[in-house]
Amino acid sequence: MRLAELREQVLEANLELVRRGLVLYTFGNLSGIDRNRALVAIKPSGVPYEKLTAAHLVITDLEGTLVEGDLRPSSDLLTHLALYKQFPNIGGVAHTHSEFATAWAQAETPIPCFGTTHADYFHGPVPVTEQLTGAQIAGAYELETGKEICRRFAELDPDSVPAVLVAGHAPFCWGPTPASAAHNAAIVEYVAKMAHHTLSINAEARPLARELHEKHFFRKHGRSAYYGQVEKQ
Asked: pTM score, two decimals?
């Protein structure tokens, strides 16, 4: 992949966060990776989305060393890099402070699966991390955030649950491409909102039956998936 192509993909995915109402002012960032060259393109820190262009995007290696760009990368860069290093199948990472997903993160509560919309995208609840310790916050905070996400996924599959709530912070989402990371960020916000409404209607609402959860997830994912159209060769 040419860096120009990566820049355009990451720009478009960042703008999708705006179109879906997932970011306010500069609250959020999205990156993408060229796995063959081990290079990451990410939104620069503090640049308003309405002014963002492909030329503004910052290119770094997986250690955070600047490769191209005149601006500072997102302050969350080291969190993104930790996820790329730990989860080999992801090609994009999105971080937002979208309203309902962030509320669940602040409540330090996983988003339960109450219905098939959630089950279509996540093979289980959207998990929440542990709170960072004072030492983690005082140290390499953004890197420690990434490490805490990775610890939370020690026994979870990041490909089948492509999102997490960082306790007291906000959601991080990912996918095989920058566009899919933005898409999953929108879905996380949607299911977070529906879960909130579900509990407001019935505080004793039960999670979706496991059999129905499995049916909906696997009809869209895996070898036996049959949702959608088969691409012609």
From this structure: 0.95
Q: How far is residue 176's CA from residue 194's CA, in Å, rounded to a whole number?
A: 25
What does the pLDDT average to over 181-195? 98
118 within a domain of the structure (yes/no) = yes
Mean pLDDT of all residues in 75-84:
98
> Domain with 150 in it: what CATH number?
3.40.225.10
- What average pLDDT does range 83-93 have in this prediction? 98
Q: How many domains does the chain have?
A: 1
Residues 6+ apart with CB under 8 A from 219: 225, 226, 227
Nearest-angstrom CA–CA distance, 22 and 224: 32
Residue 150 falls inside a structural domain: yes
Question: Would you call 61 a catalytic residue per the annotation?
Answer: no
Active site residue 34: no
Average pLDDT over residues 169-187: 98
Domain membership of residue 175 as a residue range: 3-218
Options 25, 61, 157, 227, the catalytic residue: 227
Q: Which of 49, 120, 159, 190 is catalytic?
A: 120
